[in-house]
């Protein structure tokens, strides 16, 4: 089990710094919110929350942490193993999300209506 040595909440940047004996990672609040392991988030794990912030982080026993997000969500229990997985996969998952969002974007150019006299 990969338990972090320290977790630092950077409220201004909305990031969690996760420090292990062998490495350090920065997890974005929006990514953590998207990947929340709570039951009510189960079908929404591909919805990125860019404007969400982390208000508080609390430990759950010796095995997990719980995050209070600015949108009121707080039911996800992030096990240490899951946190480590998120640390490792965040970069590739975020690259996929950015690519997907670009492909799903459509721009409609609207011409001004001609003046009627």
Descriptive overview:
This protein has helices at residues 29-34, 80-103, and strands at residues 6-10, 15-19, 24-28, 54-60, 64-69, 77-79. The protein has 117 residues and is of the alpha+beta class. The chain has a single domain (6-103), classed as NE0471 N-terminal domain-like (2-Layer Sandwich), CATH 3.30.2020. The strands form two sheets. It has a three-stranded antiparallel beta sheet. The mean pLDDT is 85.
Radius of gyration: 18 Å
Q: Write down the domain tally.
A: 1
CATH architecture label:
2-Layer Sandwich
Mean pLDDT: 85
Overall helicity: 25-40%
Going across the biggest sheet, name each strand in turn. Answer: 1-2-3
Q: Which structural category fits the helices and strands?
A: alpha+beta
Report the strand count.
6
Oligomer: single chain
Taking the sheet with the most strands, its summary is: 3 strands, antiparallel
Point out poorly predicted stretches: none
Q: State which percent range the strand residues make up.
A: 25-35%
From the N-terminal CA to the C-terminal CA, the straight-line distance is 76 Å
User: What's the order of the H and E elements?
Assistant: EEEHEEEH
Number of helix segments? 2
Task: From the structure above, extract its key features.
alpha+beta, 117 residues, 26% strand, NE0471 N-terminal domain-like, 3-stranded antiparallel beta sheet
